Amino acid sequence: MLDFVWVRNYCHAVENERKQRSVNATLLGLCANAILAALKTLAGVFGHSQALLADGIESFADVFSSLLVWRGIVVAAAPADAEHPYGHGKAEPIAAIGVTMMLIGAAFWIAVESIHQIFVPHPSPRPWTLLVLVGVIVAKESLFRFVRNEALALENAAVYSDAWHHRSDAITSLAALIGIVIAVVGGPGYESADDIAALIAAAIIAWNGLRLVGPALNELMDASPDRSLTERVRLEAAATPDVANIEKCLIRKMGGRYFVDMHVEVDPNMTVDRAHQIAHEVKDRVREKLPQIQDVLIHIEPAGYDAKGD
């Protein structure tokens, strides 16, 4: 019989590690965003670059999005209670949607400002702003790769959205870099090049935001996870002694954990006591082999029973 104390402690350790790694990745991004936002904003003001200024203000929005992700992770890690018997895992996709809305909002703001600046005469950007942007691009792309890898390893939608916020920031900075190069090299008459580049970047940021909404909405709507997980759960359950067949297997994601609803077929002449025991054996086996499974709800059925309509 499975040692449930060991399993519970192991699951708690895994969940705590997941929470800590998620928080660390988010706080790293938050600190970096705060420093880079101030740097870009100051460089935009003193370097006469509207694209760089818009980029800096967008980075300040990143700070708020990172705070939102951090709060979502903390809430999602809270244990189940009377009001939330399945836990608080849905806080993660809710935070992810909040971040994507900020992405889209930032893209809209940058687009409006860029269009306005195209028709307003202003000085050409200072050449030294290029050095600032090169450093920003390297920093943000490095952050994107690190945070994305953590998000994929932890299956955290909120952290994944935050990672793409870093990539979007790098894209905005790259667009500003291209625009400033054109404005500086082209000379008089090319002052609006960085504004046009920022407008293009805004479109890319908006597209990334729309693309990231889907996975978060799917999790909120209890969409089925990857088919390979369902097949693995079915195989482990079917391998339990005296299990005749797995009739149904439904899985939904809640934060970093999964909940399974399963119909297990057994010999119809079996005693209720033995059928009940098998249900526990199936649940124990699935949770032992797949620690990411939080709970398994099992409905016992007689083998060969037509369950259509259930």
Tell me about this structure.
- This protein is mainly alpha-helical.
- The protein has 2 domains: 4-220, Cation efflux protein transmembrane domain (Alpha-lytic protease prodomain-like); 227-302, Cation efflux protein, cytoplasmic domain (Alpha-Beta Plaits), CATH 3.30.70.1350.
- Helix content is 68%, strand content 10%.
- It has helices spanning 4-46, 50-76, 91-118, 129-154, 157-186, 193-220, 227-238, 272-289; strands at residues 245-254, 257-266, 293-302.
- A 3-stranded mixed beta sheet has the order 1-2-3, covered by helices on one side.
- Strand 1 (245-254) and strand 2 (257-266) form a beta hairpin.
- The mean pLDDT is 81.
Strand content: 5-15%
Described by strand count, sense and barrel closure, the largest sheet is: 3 strands, mixed
Just give the CATH class of the largest domain: Mainly Alpha
Any idea how many domains?
2
How many strand segments? Answer: 3
Mean pLDDT comes to 81
Q: Report, as a whole number of angstroms, the end-to-end distance.
A: 31 Å
- What low-confidence regions span 5 or more consecutive residues with pLDDT below 50? none
CATH architecture descriptor text of the largest domain: Up-down Bundle
In percent, how helical is the residue content? 55-70%
Would you identify the CATH H-level superfamily of the largest domain?
A: Cation efflux protein transmembrane domain
Order of helices and strands: HHHHHHHEEHE
What's the Cα radius of gyration? 26 Å
Strand order of the largest sheet: 1-2-3
Bulk shape: elongated
How many DSSP H or I helices?
A: 8
Instruction: Look at the helices and sheets and give the structural class.
Output: mainly alpha
Q: How is the CATH topology of the largest domain named?
A: Alpha-lytic protease prodomain-like
